[in-house]
């Protein structure tokens, strides 16, 4: 796999570096630091002076950025694969997406400082925009990733399960973790009148069908060397996933992006974006 590690010098950025020890050796590891150089905002300043001030600031930030990249390389775990450093001026989110597309990376790894949903809706965090627009999988680290032994994998339907299988067969983790396959079915009422007992019977049938589908996926994961368990429940996706996470206490939540495109990818209420806001667990999203 080709990896892109985006760093900004924050504590969670260093946690993202440490998380590399749980990932398989990369075919290529690209380390990116983006210089978000502010433009002088003084209306009465002469253009020549403004340009000189900008150039000085960029030069100083470039020197600091080069030192940061050297420090990041010195902290890399053994066996991460060949490394290429990138120091680029621009918008952090935009440059991460551009480099990921140029290098055709399979996984983007970055730490997030955790903006609240209201502020993020107004200004947009780097993690939110990368999750929305960047290709490939993304691992969002919100704090120390102490292990990758237990993974919670919510799936919704056979297509989602197939995408998960395609991703996991690439063996992204250094050591195969135990994966809990989990699905949440909504409480639905049929369009015709039905008594409570019949409704419960229908929900039970739906749960058994979902369990059978999860067992089929679990069997395929077992053939790839993963240990698995399966569980299905009724409820809403966000609450169901968070409740299962509280019970399991996984090291990581792994889930698909549901293949959103266009305007639907911008909806903050999508499952993956909501987990980014509400969950306290590291989050890995595959396409």
Descriptive overview:
With 287 residues, the protein is an alpha/beta fold. The chain has 2 domains: 1-146, 3-Layer(aba) Sandwich (Rossmann fold), CATH 3.40.50.620; 147-287, Rossmann fold, CATH 3.40.50.620. It has 9 helices and 10 strands. It has helices at residues 11-19, 47-75, 92-103, 117-123, 126-133, 157-168, 196-223, 237-248, 271-278, and strands at residues 2-6, 28-35, 83-89, 107-111, 137-141, 150-154, 178-185, 227-234, 252-256, 283-286. It has a 10-stranded mixed β-sheet with strand order 3-2-1-4-5-10-9-6-7-8, with helices on both faces. Helix 7 (196-223) links the parallel strand 7 and strand 8. The longest helix has 29 residues, at 47-75. It is elongated and about 80 Å long. Mean pLDDT is 85; it is low at 115-124 and 259-269.
Question: TL;DR?
Answer:
Helices cover 44% and strands 21% of the residues.
List its salient traits.
single chain; 287 residues; alpha/beta; ten-stranded mixed beta sheet; 9 helices; 10 strands
Topology:
Blueprint: E1 2-6, H1 11-19, E2 28-35, H2 47-75, E3 83-89, H3 92-103, E4 107-111, H4 117-123, H5 126-133, E5 137-141, E6 150-154, H6 157-168, E7 178-185, H7 196-223, E8 227-234, H8 237-248, E9 252-256, H9 271-278, E10 283-286
Parallel strand pairs: 1-2, 1-4, 2-3, 4-5, 6-7, 6-9, 7-8, 9-10
Antiparallel strand pairs: 5-10
Helix pairs in contact: 3-5, 6-7
């Amino acid at each position: 796999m080709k990896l892109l590690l985006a760093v900004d010098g924050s504590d969670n950025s260093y946690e993202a570096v440490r998380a590399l020890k749980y990932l398989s050796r990369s075919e290529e590891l690209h380390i990116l630091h983006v210089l978000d150089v502010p433009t002088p905002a003084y209306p009465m300043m002469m253009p020549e002076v403004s340009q000189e001030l900008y150039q000085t600031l960029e030069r100083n930030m470039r020197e600091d950025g080069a030192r940061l990249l050297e420090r990041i390389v010195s902290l890399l775990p053994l066996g991460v694969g060949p490394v290429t450093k990138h120091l680029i001026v621009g918008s952090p989110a935009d440059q991460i997406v551009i480099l990921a597309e140029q290098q055709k990376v399979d996984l983007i790894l970055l730490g997030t400082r955790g903006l609240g949903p209201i502020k993020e809706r107004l200004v947009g965090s780097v993690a939110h925009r990368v999750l929305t627009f960047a290709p490939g999988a993304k691992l969002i680290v919100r704090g120390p990733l102490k292990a990758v032994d237990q993974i919670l994998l919510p799936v919704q339907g056979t297509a989602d399960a197939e995408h998960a299988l395609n991703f996991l067969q690439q063996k992204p983790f250094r050591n195969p973790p135990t994966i809990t396959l989990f699905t949440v079915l909504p409480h639905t009422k049929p369009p015709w009148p039905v008594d409570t007992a019949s409704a419960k019977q229908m929900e039970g049938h739906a749960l058994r069908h979902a369990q059978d589908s999860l067992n089929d996926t679990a069997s395929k994961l077992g053939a790839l060397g993963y240990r698995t368990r399966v569980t299905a429940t009724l409820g809403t996706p966000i609450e169901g996933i968070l409740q299962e996470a509280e019970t399991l206490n996984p090291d990581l939540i792994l889930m698909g992006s549901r293949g959103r495109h266009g305007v639907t990818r911008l909806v903050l209420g999508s499952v993956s974006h909501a987990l980014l806001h509400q969950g306290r667990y590291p989050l890995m999203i595959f396409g």
